[in-house]
Design brief:
single chain; about 325 residues; mainly beta; Tumour Suppressor Smad4; Herpes Virus-1; 3 domains; five-stranded antiparallel beta sheet; 1 helix; FHA domain-containing protein; Znf_RING-CH; metal-binding; FHA_dom; zinc ion binding
């Protein structure tokens, strides 16, 4: 006889709808427990969550996610209007704190603020040895210095949509031009770069934070002389003056950096939804590990639209103001 595959889903919904946040310290939390044995949807109506068959609808409800239990794992799919976020903080659980190994282009969320992982640098910078681009073509010139030199440590690159005589620019020329537009604030283990607009003045395309030429990647916004290991985060929420921010966090002098609103944080983030010591990034074994510091609104990592969960694993997701915990064990919601 075929064994029934099932998984438990515990939901916790904060009664207040505020920027899609979940308040771990609030006592106004609605709790539900579901056993899922077939293709199902978890929806929210008001402050209550409900389980539905895949082909049914509940009036005045919003879809949070769908679950498809199959032979070896359950497939969790996001709703069209909602993203799946991995929650690093446990909700009233004695489980060990979760850590997440960061990857380039990951989106993380501290409180209501989002950050993109622009760059992870964990190796000592070696001399550049690759060939410069278009070595046979001597007609290409830098639009800033008007020179046609194309050296291994300062190649001509094409960082925007410009063409013709305006297509190419030296890496160092672009870095110097951008540095003239930046304001910086240096701390003991971090540098904050601030700018309002960093678009090409001709084609209006925003310059990337880094470009690739041959096998070498060049940091465009980062000053020379930065020693690895370091990580670069880009704030995705512009401030009221439309400024943008890059945070460079160095691990040369210490193996852990604290992100938060407190004055002693390595990366200070001035937003009321960010706790004083909100999260930490640890450099360990060549990896950058993100961990929540028991923050009020949690630390999240954006997941793909679909996630495969083995039946032996546990997973805590956040969808808007609702936490959804998946487990193969029935949880006591009164804990």
């Amino acid at each position: 006889m075929k064994k029934e595959q099932s998984i438990y889903a515990s939901t916790f919904t904060w009664s207040r709808d505020s920027h899609g946040l979940f308040d771990y310290e609030s006592s106004h939390i609605s709790k539900k427990l579901f056993k899922i044995t077939e293709n199902s949807k978890i929806v929210r109506a008001g402050n209550e969550t409900h389980i539905q068959a895949h082909n049914s609808e509940l009036a005045n409800s919003s879809l949070l996610l769908s679950v498809n239990p199959i032979r070896y794992h359950a497939v969790i799919n996001s709703a069209e209007q909602e993203s799946l976020w991995l929650a690093l903080r446990n909700y009233k659980s004695s489980s060990q704190p979760k850590t997440y190994t960061l990857k380039e282009n990951d989106i993380i969320k501290l409180g209501r603020l989002k950050f993109r992982v622009c760059s992870l640098n964990n190796d000592l910078i070696e001399p550049i040895t690759q060939e410069a681009i278009n070595p046979e073509n001597t007609e290409n010139v830098c639009r800033i210095c008007l020179c046609d030199t194309n050296e291994p440590n300062n190649p001509l690159i094409s960082p925007c949509m410009c063409s013709g005589t305006m297509k190419y620019i030296h890496v160092l020329c672009l870095q110097k031009w951008i540095s003239s537009k930046l304001s910086t604030k240096e701390g003991e283990n971090s540098v904050i770069y601030c700018w309002k607009s960093m678009d090409c003045e001709l084609c209006k395309q925003p310059f990337p934070t880094k470009v690739k030429s041959g096998r070498k990647t060049y940091e465009i916004f980062i000053a020379e002389g930065i020693t690895t290991p370091y990580i670069v985060l880009e704030a995705m929420n512009k401030d009221h003056n439309s400024h943008r921010y890059l945070y460079l966090v160095s691990f040369m002098n210490k193996c852990i950096a604290v992100l938060g609103r407190g004055h002693d944080s390595d990366v200070r983030i001035s937003d009321i939804s960010v706790s004083r010591s909100h999260a930490s990034i640890k450099y360990e074994g060549g990896n950058f590990l993100l961990e929540d510091n028991i923050s009020k609104f949690g630390t999240l990592v954006k997941l793909e639209e679909s996630y495969k969960l083995s039946y032996e694993s546990e997973l805590m997701l956040q969808v808007g103001r609702t936490l959804v915990e998946f487990s193969n064990k029935k949880r006591n919601l009164n804990d």
